[in-house]
Design goal:
alpha/beta, Rossmann fold, six-stranded parallel β-sheet, three-stranded parallel β-sheet, 11 strands, binds guanine
Length: 283
């Protein structure tokens, strides 16, 4: 039986730590940390994520503003909004919820965010910092995963780490964070041959593909830590990328879906917001 990696409880602890830090910082600087989220269109998953972010900010005494725009917003208007937020001294963190509609160049929009307010760690400068080994503003989901591994004393140094998925949001930054902690990292993707055999080498297996139950026990070395980033809705139920019931008896550690990685993503976003705030107010 695998140990369940309880991201939900861990996130709760991180969020109350953040709240304490916010209260101390506000006492000292008399300025409330402020995260602004830009949400385009009505994608139900994005709406849910953004509501979760708003709620978490409120509970941690971080001010949150959501700028909502219709699906047909122009790229120029979006860039103008970001320019205004970059200039606005009362805003410490900016997050543009992805994906954006097809007519908008996502990279151009992200790149417009001031790197010092880039709570997602998606701008080229912050990606470069991550690659250089400075991961203070790393993307929230992979950073939250490192926090889970640390909380359960799962050693990364020298371990075989396999990441399935090479997205900008999770797979690539995950690989760098594991490498920065001296893991031996392999990234698998849709063109990888004999993916099961490669995955089976892993002491730490991170799956971030977005395909429900694609990883079964044939991918998993006995005793491995299995981290499931996927969330898909199948027949109205949330499913991870990992077939939990089949993998759990083989794995040493496993994250549930929901209640594993997801809550830690939001908790890490709050931490990144505080990092931006501290840099901006000089704390
Ligand atoms: N869409 C899905 N995950 C994320 C994330 O971590 N950040 C942003 N901005 N959009 C997302």
């Amino acid at each position: 039986m695998a140990t369940l990696l309880d991201g939900k409880t861990l996130a709760k602890n991180v969020r109350s730590e953040v709240k304490e830090r916010v209260m101390t910082l506000m006492e000292k600087h008399d300025v409330q940390p402020h995260l602004t989220v830009v949400l385009v269109g009505g994608d139900p998953a994005s709406q849910t994520y953004v509501r979760g972010k708003e709620r978490a900010c409120k509970n941690a005494h971080i001010k949150s503003t959501v700028i909502r725009k219709d699906n047909d917003v122009s790229e120029d208007e979006l860039l103008g909004i970001i320019d205004d937020l970059n200039e606005d001294d009362s805003v410490h963190g900016i997050l543009v919820q992805l994906p954006l509609p097809d007519h908008i160049n996502e990279e151009r929009v992200i790149e417009r965010i001031s790197p010092k307010k880039d709570v997602d760690g998606f701008t080229a400068i912050n990606v470069a910092h991550l690659m250089a080994g400075d991961d203070t503003l790393a993307p929230c989901t992979p950073k939250g995963i490192i926090r889970i591994l640390d909380a359960y004393d799962i050693d990364i140094e020298g371990k075989e780490c396999v990441v399935i998925g090479r997205s900008q949001i999770v797979g690539k930054p995950m690989a760098h964070l594991l490498l920065n902690r001296n893991g031996t990292v392999t990234v698998c993707h849709s063109r990888t041959k004999q993916i099961e055999q490669v995955a089976k080498r892993a002491d730490i297996l991170v799956v971030a593909v977005g395909r429900a139950h694609m990883v079964d026990e044939s991918f998993v070395k006995p005793g491995a830590a299995v981290i499931d980033v996927g969330i898909s809705k199948v027949d109205g139920k949330l499913r991870g990328d990992v077939a939990f019931d089949e993998v759990e008896p083989v794995a040493g550690y496993i994250t549930p879906v929901p209640g594993g990685v997801g809550p830690m993503t939001i908790a890490t976003l709050l931490e990144n917001t505080i990092t931006c705030y501290k840099r901006i107010v000089g704390a």
